[in-house]
Each structure stands twice: as structure tokens, then as C-alpha cells.
Amino acid sequence: MYELLKGLAAWLTGSEQWAGSDGIGHRLAEHLQYSLLATLIAAAIALPVGLLIGHTGRGAFIAINLSSFGRALPTVGLVVLVFLASGLSMWPVYIALVALAVPSIVTNTYAGMTAVDPEVRDAARGQGMRPHQVLLQVELPLALPLIMTGLRLALIQVVATATIAAYVSFGGLGRYVFDGLAQRDLVQVLGGAVLVAVVAVVLDLALSALQRVLFRHRPSTPA
């Protein structure tokens, strides 16, 4: 174990490991690109759905069950299925990552909307607000803490899973895991896993701190 940790430290700190297109800096940038783009696409899909069902109260059963179905999908299996249908491209990776991120965003957005006090909605309507004004000016601001929690959870899940890009010959930090397995290089496998874990933890802490700053005057929301 000592030799393994010593090798890991040397691998992480070696200058050659940070240089070039195979270096940690480049692979990290690729990993973040995949993760952030997939999360943004998922948010563009899931936020309107969660807001709509939370505002109208319609379609909640279908939406939540579809979200649960997406959460249960085997990510690697989905990548392989789309890969066989579309060929060598990043589409299989993005589709799998988006499918992974959507459930958390839909569920938390819906939960945030339903947590809004009905009396607040009634008061807004009583002041003459139209439905879209109630949604955007009253419900959405009050639901934001839980919505941000959903986005944070989705991003962390995607970061941890974006290693699958290397499964279909693309980049990211997963390249070290899959190349290390192919080469039977345990240090490289462990290095890739540690880097992914560190990125996920750092992002989680950063987003959690941002939430606390933005909503410091509101009651805390569950993580």
C-alpha cells in the first residue's frame, strides 16, 4: 500500500503528467466541458418540466415516474446502445449524462414549487398577478433554494459519471481509468479515480458555499 501511495503521489506531481494533450490539465478541461454541457442541456429540459408541473399540479405522476426511470437506466448500457445507433461521436455520452442529470433537477424543482405556501400564491393572484407573473415573480424565487440543490446534485452525479466518455474513445479524466485498466497500471487507474473524486468534492463544496451565500437569510434546505 505504501508503494502504491508513493507511486500515486509521484504520478500526480510529475511535471510530465501535466503537459501535453494527455496531461491532467487538458483531461480536466475536457471532463469539465462534458459535465457542464450535459448539465446545462439537462437543466434546459428539466427546469421547464419541473416548473410547469409544480405550477399547474398536472402531470406530476408521469413526470416523477419518468424521472425515476431515467435514474434507473444503466449509464454504460445506454452509451453502448446510442453508440451502436449513431456511430462514433459524443452523442452517446451526452445522452447518457443528460438522462442521469434530469431526474434530480425535475424532482427538486417540483419539490421546490410544491413547497411554496398556497396562501402566498393566493395573495399574489388576489393582487391581480397573471399566472406567468405568479410563476416567475413569486413561486420561482421561493423555490430557488431547492432548485439549486437539484442542479448541484445533478452536476456532481454527472462529474462522477463523465468518465464513460473514455469508454467510447473520447477524453476526460476517465481516460486514465480506462487506459490504466488496459495497461494494468494500477497507479494510473487510482490517479484517475482520485482526480474525479477531488473535482466532484471541490465542485460540491463550492456550490454549497454559493447556496449558503445566496440564501443565507432563508431557512436551510436539505442537501
**String of helices and strands:** HHHHHHHHH
Looking at this structure, what is the CATH superfamily? MetI-like
Please tell me what the overall shape is: elongated
Task: Quickly count the domains.
Answer: 1
- Named at the architecture level, the CATH assignment is Orthogonal Bundle
Classify the fold: give the CATH topology. MetI-like fold
CATH class: Mainly Alpha
Helix content: over 70%
Largest sheet report: none
Rounded mean pLDDT score: 85
Annotation, overall tally of beta strands: 0
Pfam family, one: BPD_transp_1
Keywords: Membrane, Transmembrane, Transmembrane helix, Transport
Subcellular location: Cell membrane; Membrane
InterPro entries: ABC_transp_perm/SBD, MetI-like, MetI-like_sf
Summarize the structure.
The chain has 223 residues and is mostly helical. It has 9 helices and no strands.
Walk me through this protein's architecture.
This protein has 223 residues and is an all-alpha fold. It has a single domain, classed as MetI-like fold. α8 runs antiparallel to α9. The longest helix is centred in the N-terminal third of the chain and has 33 residues. The chain starts with a helix and ends in a 9-residue tail after the last helix. The mean pLDDT is 85.
List the helices and strands and how they pair.
Layout: H1 2-13, H2 24-56, H3 60-72, H4 75-86, H5 91-114, H6 118-126, H7 131-161, H8 174-183, H9 186-214
Helix pairs in contact: 1-9, 2-5, 2-7, 3-5, 4-5, 5-7, 6-7, 7-9, 8-9
Which descriptors apply to this entry?
mainly alpha, MetI-like fold, 223 residues
